Amino acid sequence: MNRKFLENIGKSLLRITAMLAIILGIPAFCYLIWNPGSNAPLPNYSNNAIWIGHGWLGDDKWFERNQRDKENFRREDKIVALFKKLSQNKITTVYPHLCPSQMSGKIAVYDSTQVENFLDIAEKYSIKIIPWIGGVFEESARIEDKNWRKNFVESVDELLKKHPRLAGVQVNIEPLPSGNTDFLKLLEELRPITNGKILSVAAYPPPTKWHQFPDVHWNLPYIKLVATRCDQMAVMMYDTAIPLEKFYIKLMTDWTRQLVTTISSINCELLLGIPAYNDAEVGYHHPRVENIDSALKGISASGKKNEIKGISIYCEWEMDENKWKRWKKFIK
Fold first, then answer.
1. What's the predicted TM-score (pTM) here?
2. N or C terminus of the chain: which is more exposed, having fewer CB within 10 Å?
3. Looking at residues 65-90, what average pLDDT do you find?
4. Domain 42-330 falls under CATH 3.40.50.300
5. Which sequence spans correspond to the domains of the chain?
């Protein structure tokens, strides 16, 4: 090969390399300058909420099975510290874990004395207590079974009558395919016994091209059907598997707009559930992407932030001082 020929090949390779750098660099540059979120503070919502652990209301056997120290949950100073922290951070509703349901349909066993002690202190801080009940779809939550639903409803009725200061219950069944009619029946059967109390649902966000798993996304018509059968929806807006933060921020903006538009004409409180946990390396959640900052930036940018009732944090046992500071940046 002569020298000129080699020089031409070299120039061609340089041109191709430059073109590839431009082609590949444009998306990276666009992502770099794209700013889909907003740092603007959210309103002082009347109903911010948080999901808390099982130990606060659980029975003694739960502590034995899980080798947990009751004193971390039963001591009055621990309960006071919990509610003081939540009150300082403008949390007005608490969802204590009472899952999974028993195979018969009865809700998880609880300590009645502890429930009353918990309510005594919650009352002093004007915080509503709404136990989080349900279980795993088709396992501990066999909602297709009429007898299971009957036992579940009777068990909820017993809980609310035994502890009338409870503000209501929240039904959480995971996963739950969109369009499931048995779930609608369950809500209809719960309605009469929760009359005057809050019937809340831990709901799923709309479908997204980023996370195509129908068991954990509800289409908008189904969300509307659920909303007409309950008083409150806390939508679990996380576990999307999105690897890039700005795309998650944009999705939070889109979801907020879709949800507000879908249930705006229905008498149902809308709370948006945000992630505060560190389940790294699980595939469906990347904490560097899904976190308090990114979620609230997306909600703030929606243009609908005044039309929701509050934000619900998942979960209290993952919160630390740094996360509370990040929360306070948005919640004034």
1. 0.91
2. N
3. 97
4. no
5. 1-33, 42-330
